[in-house]
Amino acid sequence: MTDPAQFVDEAVARLRAAIPGRAIIAASGGIDSTAAAILAQRAVGDRARAIFVDNGLLRDGEVARVRAFFDASGLHYEVRDAADRFFEALDGIVDPEEKRRRIGMTFIRLFETEADRFGTDRLIQGTIAPDWIESGGSLRDTIKTHHNVGGIPLDSRLTLVEPLRDLYKDEVRAVARALGIPEPERQPFPGPGLAVRVNGLVTPERVRRARVANRVVEEEVERAFRTGAMPRPWQYFAVLLPTRSVGVLGDNRVHGEAVSVRIVESSDAMTATAAAPPPAVLKTIAERITRELSGEVVRVLYDITDKPPATIEWE
Ligand code: XMP
Q1: Of all atoms in ligand 1, which is nearest to the CA of residue 143?
Q2: pLDDT tens digits for 161-170?
Q3: Is the beta carbon of 47 within 6 A of some atom in ligand 1?
Q4: I need a surface site. Which of 138, 201, 213, 285 has the fewest CB within 10 A?
Q5: Distance of CA 191 from the midpoint of ligand 1 (Å)
Q6: By C-alpha distance, which of 41, 42, 3 is closest to 24?
Q7: Distance, CA 40 to ligand 1 centroid (Å)?
Q8: Distance 21 CA to ligand 1 centre (A)
Q9: How wide is the angle at C-alpha 250 spanned by C-alphas 244 and 254, nearest 5°?
């Protein structure tokens, strides 16, 4: 892509051709799907309906934030609360690929119902190049089945429309700016949400812990770059680990969970470097997580691994 404005014109023309009737848009609140949604609404107006699903795996305050973001972007949308369905689908599952498959399947079944109601078989998604490249194919191993690629069941009636398929993240950000979407520099958040930041069993209780830890990391890292203590990283988050260790709470022994903090620099998510944040930032993060999850999380680790050999998310 050379010129974002030219890309917008061409994408709108392609979308008009791809959507003869109506379409629904899977809008996650991220930059990719928001850009895809705005392109689709530019192309066919209210014949494209954006749906944001609250899957119960979102970050603290995310529904309100996404609503404000869509409003500021000029997107028309509807919200569906489906947390119970996702927790039911994830019950007893620890394998990361199986989690992704089940989340993808639950999303698709929901969107099939929505598509039936709206009278269409077209589903617009914000898939970008790294999503399908890392989801495998004939030439590459499957690194991760990103929910918006590998999760589509073969028997689905939906036809996918993916206007950003060939773009990388920095190009999507340029397109988002050209579309007047505010804050295109926000950090990426994976479609399967906190489920891939809860290693092991995904229960409402463990998701709540991951949600608190992720809020603390975001607040402290954002405070650090606002005050000039560190540059804005590509991504910064916390992962709840499937391990317990011994801690002290007052005079008592506790056997609590552990959290790993991950802060990485990257330009396209294909490779990444573990950041070296100031020790004071990490210390505040550890103090706050163990205080706000007192007795539940007793240990905080910092992940110093680059991608490769690791990936950015733990699962
Ligand atoms: P990994 O963990 O594979 O992540 O190094 C690369 C980038 O992709 C994000 N990510 C996802 N995004 N659906 C998404 O929409 C997914 O299933 C998914 N898994 C990872 C990750 O946060 C990073 O920015």
Answers
A1: 3
A2: 999 999 998 9
A3: no
A4: 138
A5: 8
A6: 41
A7: 23
A8: 32
A9: 15
Scan for tokens 């991950």, then name that residue.
Answer: 262
pTM of the prediction?
Answer: 0.90
What does DSSP say about strands 235-249 and 252-265: parallel, antiparallel, or unpaired?
antiparallel
Low-confidence ranges of the chain (pLDDT < 70): 136-154, 184
31 Cβ below 6 A of ligand 1 = no
If 0-12 CB within 10 Å is exposed, 13-18 middle and 19+ buried, where does residue 129 land?
A: middle
- Rounded to the nearest angstrom, the distance between the alpha carbon of 253 and the centre of ligand 1 is 37
Do the Cβ atoms of 24 and 17 come closer than 8 Å?
no
Closest CA to 108 of 128, 123, 126: 123
> Under 8 Å CB-to-CB from 272, ≥6 apart: which residues?
234, 235, 264, 265, 266, 306, 307, 312
Strand order in the sheet with 48-54: 77-81, 48-54, 23-26, 122-124, 159-161
Phi and psi, residue 182, nearest 5°: -75, 155
C-alpha to C-alpha distance for 69 and 182, rounded to whole angstroms: 8
Which residues are bridge partners to 79 per DSSP? 52
Q: Judge if the beta carbon of residue 150 lies within 6 A of ligand 1.
A: no
Task: Name the residue type at position 70.
Answer: F
Alpha carbon 127 to its chain centroid, in Å, reads 12
Distances (CA, A) of 244 to 3, 17, 116, 297, 298: 51, 54, 46, 9, 9
Judge if the beta carbon of residue 256 lies within 6 A of ligand 1.
Answer: no
* Chain segment 100-151, per-residue pLDDT in tens: 999 999 999 999 999 999 999 999 999 999 888 877 654 556 666 665 555 5
The token duo for 234 is 């590509």
Please give the number of the atom of ligand 1 that sits closest to the Cα of 235.
24
